[in-house]
Specification:
214 residues, mainly alpha, two-stranded antiparallel ribbon
Amino acid sequence: MTTKPKIIQSALAAISGELKKMREERTSTAAEIGKLQAEIKRLQDMPVSRADFGLLLQEHIAAQAQRTDAALLHDLQDVKKTFDGQSIEYNQYNKRGMAEMEVHRFGDFPDWIFSYNLLANPAGGVLASGQLKARELQSLLCWLLPEVIHSKIMAVINEQIGAEWGNDTLPSVAERREQIADMQAEIASLQARLAELDAALAELGSSFHHPAAD
């Protein structure tokens, strides 16, 4: 008569021990994720050298220029149907006839990448004077003159700030990015393990409503 309770007690003790081990692993895994995230933040918050500022500046200029790339591609490939949808008001440039794109047409119905026709194309041409607001102009200049913009900004930094910029002994952007990528991959692996532990804890917890205290 006493065999069954002992078996049950033994099973409960085993489940309790397994729960405790998994909880401890979960705690240590979460702590390791926190450490890695803190190290990533430390590397990201660290200032950069002049050379690396130049690298980041190039990336920003390229990103700004990409906006004009996308706008120009839209202008070249956009199609607009008439209000009733029965015909095309303006078509992609590779489907327009020569007469529609010749210079003499501009005065009659300006619909061109250099034009700004609010009725025909609310977006306006990417090179249109009506579109050259501050944000669009910034993107356009980065698209047209990326090397000039970069060299002028870096000339001011090198000539007027120079070595006072500092940060030359800090890890480079390339080194930090490599380290951050490795840590992010490790975090992803640890988070997957965390999800496994949470699922296992939930499953064990459902079969053991009153686990032993840790």
